[in-house]
């Protein structure tokens, strides 16, 4: 969950972790508890990552990158689509015929989002910010991930202020539910 380094290093490490989880999903044959555990694991990681980006990365992009507002808006829209897919997956049985196509759609959406961030957003942010600003953002991202929800909440507001206010409470409830059910412990 926390890798260390500046914001770009931290988020790129998250991206590699998600890619590895997707590879494990693709290597899984059949359905059942193993697939459910992997879907839960990827959901937890993607939700924490998204919340942290919405709280800290995208406001920094708006502030420091020329034309950053529309760029941040696009990334938040990407998150919204992913979160809706995650919510559908959360409710879906692993033997549902729609599981495989939805997982494929999720992997494609996330891959396109990662490619866009790493090719466009990260280089622009690196150019616009000092090394210290990038380090500070990395620290904020890591802290946010520890408090973030672990389940998709697509109806929750995505503004940085609302997220900073609501995410810790939702995160606490989600982590309590996860503890009781054993979710994410595989």
Describe the protein.
The protein is an all-alpha fold. Helix 1 (7-27) runs antiparallel to helix 2 (33-64) and helix 1 (7-27) runs antiparallel to helix 4 (99-128). It contains 6 helices and no strands.
Write a brief caption for the model.
By secondary structure, the chain is mainly alpha-helical.
Q: What are its keywords?
A:
186 residues; mainly alpha; 6 helices; 0% strand; elongated
Q: Helical region count? A: 6
Instruction: Report the average pLDDT across residues.
Output: 85
According to DSSP, the number of beta strands is 0
Helix/strand/pairing category: mainly alpha
Shape, principal axes of CA atoms? elongated
Element-level helix/strand string: HHHHHH
Beta fraction: under 5%
Q: What is the helix content?
A: over 70%
Rg, rounded, reads 16 Å
* Unreliable residue stretches: 161-165, 175-181
Largest sheet: none
Measure the end-to-end span: 15 Å
